[in-house]
Design goal:
Mean pLDDT: 88
Number of strands: 8
Helix content: 10-25%
Strand content: over 45%
Shape: globular
Structural class: alpha+beta
Distance between the termini: 42 Å
CATH architecture: Beta Barrel
Largest sheet: 8 strands, antiparallel, barrel
Length: 160
């Protein structure tokens, strides 16, 4: 009878090791949301003298209050002044952990709306093995020639 409990214990131990080593179970997908306020140097520099750059921050799930930097490269707009674009963002948590993502979307130059998708590209600390992504909605005050305020909503999923 003592052989059966030892086999069960060995089997349980083996399954625990396999489960811990399996990347699919290492990080469960969780909701990722953020509300960012930032200021662009000049968002249209992304078209005429790329990249455009922003600085800002705000609350982001899994990170608390953050500091963020980002870049934007714009392609020529269509007849409705909608310009495709792409760039990258680095988010820094209060404890110094970093998370970066690449994004692509479009900027509606007349309304200042930016919409698109993002994909996590890397990180440090607990985000070293990050994966996931989502969507964003940005609103930029394009009526100003520079120092253009922006708000962004991030909505997605993250695994780390």
């Amino acid at each position: 009878m003592t052989g059966i409990p030892r086999r069960l214990l060995a089997l349980s131990f083996g399954l625990a090791i396999i489960t811990a080593a399996c990347p699919a179970t290492a990080g469960k997908a969780r909701p990722f949301k953020g509300h960012v306020t930032a200021v662009w140097d000049n968002v249209f520099a992304g078209l005429f003298a790329p990249p455009a750059n922003f600085l800002g921050g705000g609350p982001v799930t899994h990170m608390g209050n953050t500091f963020q930097t980002g870049t934007l490269f714009l392609l020529p707009p269509d007849e409705n002044f909608v310009a495709p674009g792409f760039g990258s963002v680095t988010i820094i948590a209060a404890n110094g952990d970093q998370l970066s993502f690449d994004y692509e979307g479009e900027l509606h130059a007349l309304t200042g709306e930016g919409i698109g998708t993002f994909t996590f590209a890397g990180g440090t600390g607990r985000f070293a093995n990050v994966s996931g992504g989502g969507t964003f909605y940005a609103l930029i005050d394009t009526s100003l020639p520079d120092n253009q305020p922006m708000t962004v909503e991030l909505d997605g999923a993250i695994s780390y």
